[in-house]
C-alpha cells in the first residue's frame, strides 16, 4: 500500500518578500478554520454500524467529512467541487496516471460524517470543541450529501451519518488526500 497526503488551499494568495506569487506556503501563518475531508481512493468501501452494513460502494472514493463550527455553504461548495474533480484515477485508454476524476470513471462516492477530524489533545484527552455541534451538523451534512447528488449522478452518492460507533472498511487502491480550507490569520 502507498499513501499520499496533501493540503489543498482554498482562495489563498501567497506572496514572497518581493511581493511576487510563491507556491511556498508557511504553515505557521495559516489556520484551518473550516471543513476537512480525507479522501481515499478505493476499490470498494462499506460502512457498518453495530455490525450491520448501512452503506457501500464499489470502486470510487471514500470521503470522511469533518464539519467545523464556522462552516458555511461556500465551504461545502468547495469540498464538493474539489472531491468530484480530483484526478485520482488512471486513464485506461491512454495509460496516463492521475488523469481522470470519479465522474469520468462513473465510480461511487461514499461520504461519512467524521467529527473526530477536528479532535485535538488536551493533555491525554481528546477535545472536539471546534467541531460543529450535532444539532447543527446533521442538517448541514445532509445538505452536503444533497449537493454531491445534484453535482453528479445521485445514485452514485452514498452518505451516512450516525452518532453510534461505526467502522469504515476501504479496500485496496489506497491513496489518501487530506483536503482542508486554509485561512490566513
Automatic annotation (TrEMBL):
Its EC number(s): 3.1.1.96
Predominant place of localization: cytoplasm
Presence of keyword Isomerase: no
Transmembrane regions: none
Enzyme kind, highest EC tier: hydrolase
GO molecular function: D-tyrosyl-tRNA(Tyr) deacylase activity; tRNA binding
Family annotation (Gene3D superfamilies): D-tyrosyl-tRNA(Tyr) deacylase
Catalyzed reactions: glycyl-tRNA(Ala) + H2O = tRNA(Ala) + glycine + H(+); a D-aminoacyl-tRNA + H2O = a tRNA + a D-alpha-amino acid + H(+)
Keywords associated with the record: Cytoplasm, Hydrolase, RNA-binding, tRNA-binding
Source organism superkingdom: Eukaryota
Keyword Cytoplasm: yes
One matching Pfam family: Tyr_Deacylase
Compartments, as annotated in UniProt: Cytoplasm
Family named by the database record: Belongs to the DTD family.
Protein name from the UniProt record: D-aminoacyl-tRNA deacylase
A Gene Ontology cellular-component term: cytoplasm
